[in-house]
Every structure is written in structure tokens, then in C-alpha cells.
Known about the structure:
By secondary structure, this protein is an alpha/beta fold. It has helices at residues 10-21, 36-44, 71-75, 91-100, 115-125, 171-178, 191-196, 200-209, 212-218, 230-249, 257-265, 272-276, 294-297, 300-313, 319-332, 353-362, and strands at 2-6, 25-29, 46-51, 61-63, 66-68, 80-83, 106-109, 133-137, 142-146, 151-157, 161-165, 185-187, 222-223, 285-286.
Amino acid sequence: MKVAVLGAGHGGQAIAGDLTLAGHEVRLASVPEHSTNIDLLKAFGGIVVEGITSSGAKPGFAKIALITTDVAEAIQDAQVIMVVMPAFGQEAYMKILSEKAKAGQIIVFHPGYYASLVFAKMLKEAGREGELIFGDTLSLIFAAKTKGLGHVNIKAMKSELPFATLPSINTAKALWVISDIYPQFSPAYSVLQTSIDNVGAIVHPITTLLNMSRIEHMGPYRTSHYDVSPSIGRVMETIDKEKMLITKELGMEAFSFMDIIFTIYKVKAANIFDQMSQISAHNVQMAPGDLKHRYITEDVPYGLVPLAAFGKLLNIKTPNIDAIINLACMANAENYWEMGRNLSTMGIDNMNIKEVAQYVTFLKRPEA
């Protein structure tokens, strides 16, 4: 299959290398402003994959079919287009896709963080609403890190990865194609569920902020299981309860943090601390070097802030979610409430909750 991978960070390199080793024709691209890794990978001609592969192919050097900063060239004739990057970098690719992507191509924001809602608004403004099939995953399929120039280590793979399209009536059609690449993709209720249930919004900012003194004194240091302690686990459980209230009021089945971790890692426990301590993929990793890491700069404005906005729409108080957002704002001297994604940037600010449900299911907008 011809696959375009847009984004050459940890996740993009892991997916590009993995799919190449599985026998697919992969085009890896970044926009010129994100070209540093692309320029290096061009010199190598490919990526050394270490660890595991999704297909069982032997890890090693993956010669990528095309490495370029011309995104339009990379997506030409690709059956699947995967946008693999933090939420704060997605819109540069959305703009190109809104102009150059063709009907029949499947676009996957991997992971999403409400990307499909933002992209749908962009397509409507471009006069292309309803032309393309696109959707979001809940998370990255791999736990992977680059290990220097052109070298990526895939430590683990999700056992199951929820995915949904906008509108969700297209999910089965998209999965029919994507399952040839990653059969681990499974249908989610909607793109609201894949974004709200992204566990990164809970684990990343909470563990980073509650270990901020150590991070700022030591810089990046070797951690185990995100340095979750029993008390940090209880904070995560409190945030999770507010998230589940929102999910339930949105009319979706409410999956807890622990439910989702079991889905993707098949690990059960009595509480979040015990469960996190059992995930082998998190056994050895590095802490962020500072608080400007994406664990804050992505997961707060693109994960927690939209969640609080849905709480407000539903008249659900979210004092604990708000507290984590405010702590991040104070720690980084940033106003994350005004950054990232909100109901307006997602194109649903003039909808009530019933209208939002109709929109994400059928792409049906409320009558003027």
C-alpha cells in the first residue's frame, strides 16, 4: 500500500520505518519549517528501526521510498495519509490537505486531540465539506523514541487503538482500508471519544507538574513509569472522574483511565498507581528536560482546556481539571486557556450538545 507519513518526529519516524519494513511504499514528509529531521533523513536515505515491528519483520534499516519537504508530492496517490505530530503542529498540514488531498484518500490524525473537528471547519471554509474521509486515533500506536540521527527505538505497540472518523458513519469504511496497515485500529464512538479519552491529557501534565522541582533541578533524568506515586495516582483518579462525567453527559459510554489503559496495554490493577507501575513500555524512559515540553505545551491547551470547555457547555463543574490547567499557566507564565483548541476553533461553538452529537455522527449542522 502507498502510505504518506506527515511529520518526522519520534512517531512519524517509527511509523515510516515500521511500514517500510512491512513492505509498504512510504513517503515521509514535513513542511519546510519542520525540515530539520527530514534533511538529516535524506542524507541517510532511511531509518534504522530498533526494538519491535508491527508486522513481525526483522528490525533494521528501512529505506524510505520518498523523503521530502513537498507534502503535496508525498500525498499524491497515497491511499492512507497519516499526520503524525503534536497537535500544535497539525494545522500547517491541514491547510495543504484541504487544498491537495483527493476523494478516496483516508486521512488519519495520529493522535487527534480534536484535529478532525478543526480540519472539518477548514474544509467547510474551503468549500470542500463532505469530500474527504478523515479521523483521529486516541493515541500513537507505538511507544517510540528516536536515538540519534536516523535511528528510532520502538519499545512497545498498543494492543488496540480506538479510531473514529468525522462523521462517525464513515469509520467502518476507513477501517476497511487502514486495517491492512494496522489491524490494531478499532472503532470508537466518535472523534469526541478518541480525543476526550486520550490518556496523555491526564498522565502527562499531572506527572510533569507534580515532579516539576526535580525536573527543573536535574533536567532530563531517567524515570520509571512516569514517576507516578500513590498520591499522584490519586490526583489522576480525581481528574479522571470529572472527565467521565463529561463523557457520560455527551451520550457516550464512559471509559475510565484504567479501562483505556487496559484496552491499549492489557494491564489490570486496583488503582492507577498500581496499573501504571505494571506497564512494561513505561519501565525506563526520560523525564522532560523542562516544563516547555509537549507534555505541558500540547496536553494542557489541546487536551485539558477543550475538556473543560465541554464541561462548561454541559454545565458540569471541573474544579480539578481547572486546577491543573491553572498550575500549568502559573508554572510556565502562559495563558493556556487562550491557546490551543476551544469550541470555536473546533467549529461547534454555536451548537448545543444534541447538535454536536448530530454533527460528529452525520456531519449534520443545525439549521440556520
